[in-house]
Specification:
Helices cover about 30% and strands about 30% of the residues. It contains ten helices and 14 strands.
Length: about 325
Amino acid sequence: MNDIAIEVDQVSKSFGKIKALDAVSFQVPSRSVFGLLGPNGAGKTTLFSVAANFLKADQGSIRILGIDIQRISELQGRLTILPQDAQFQKNVPILDQLAFFRLLDGRPLAEARQEVQQTLDLVGIGGYAKRGVHALSHGMQKRLGIAQAFLGQPEVILLDEPTAGLDPANAKQIRDLVSELSQRATVVVSSHNLAEIEELCDHVAILDHGKVVTFGPVEELTRGEQELEIAFAQSLTGDDQGTLLQLPVVQEIRESGPQSYTLQLTLGDGSRDQAVSQVLRALLDRDLVPRRMDEGKSLENHFLRVTNRESGANGPPPPPSA
């Protein structure tokens, strides 16, 4: 069995003088949850459109399950794509709309309707099967899009900004559904929500200005990119901070709020738990007891560094959520 589900090779696409994709190359491992990450305008949606064969690349190629997307008809039933803000017919019953997609795949009508009802039940909107999309909230419409991606037995699923515009509770529900999808397929999720990608994905590619600036396993990319935020009852003295900076695992300390400090950790060959233990021992030796400790967003640190957005370079960093 091939361990690569998607191969993107030197893909470029321009719109007039704007180069949306610039020699983009990366591979998506089979059965991974792969995050395509980047700020707005980085080229994520353009790349999804090329992968779906909605747009033709100016150069380069994409192979999905070993098949060039120029022959995308051969991927029918094996590839599912959910565009950002996918649209459905407003007044046609949801059950009929999704059943139609299954009819196109050669399913008998009764079987198609049964499968759709089961899928709608799975994503929590089964009670709306005979109603139109107008009866669904924005969050429910996102679930409907995920339901469409569930249909059949797709081996690769592309989801473009599946949680964009959702409140935290609905976004969490969509992430749970995506995790469910990943149990049986390779899932590629496009987003500019760093925390979401770090929670969902085991591999990631970061796009910036149409170029891939880094890609690989999240664990590997974020190694050495760990932060630890600690709040105290009082401010740290210069001697307190000096003691911490003498630790091999502490690279930098910066104030992040009243009596709150963020430590940049360098893990080296050790684990994060070992590094935190060293910090705690040093604090307790100085009779400093943390009131609160939070894990930093290591993927965010990596993103800011590789896109040259640290310390406000190239303008402010991208928004932290979709």
